[in-house]
């Protein structure tokens, strides 16, 4: 079962979809999530969020000032500032 991922900034949804892997930078270091991961609540550090879509595509976004949560196979990343990298 894939991860259901939502990456939002203060004013808009930046990306949402299904993924096999999500890697984000927190204040304690970089952390990765795959389906079946234990629940997590963490504070984002300024850096990249890297998402591997179930289709194999890659999504990279810069994010800062927020948090991420993982519950079941749902990943929510809420950032004060976030934007996709071209």
UniProtKB/TrEMBL annotation:
Keywords: ATP synthesis, CF(1), Ion transport, Membrane, Transport. It is a peripheral membrane protein. The keyword Nucleotidyltransferase does not apply. SUPFAM superfamilies: Epsilon subunit of F1F0-ATP synthase N-terminal domain. The keyword Membrane applies. It is found in: Cell membrane. InterPro entries: ATP_synth_F1_dsu/esu, ATP_synth_F1_dsu/esu_N, ATPsynth_dsu/esu_N. NCBIfam families: PRK13442.1. This is ATP synthase F1 complex delta/epsilon subunit N-terminal domain-containing protein.
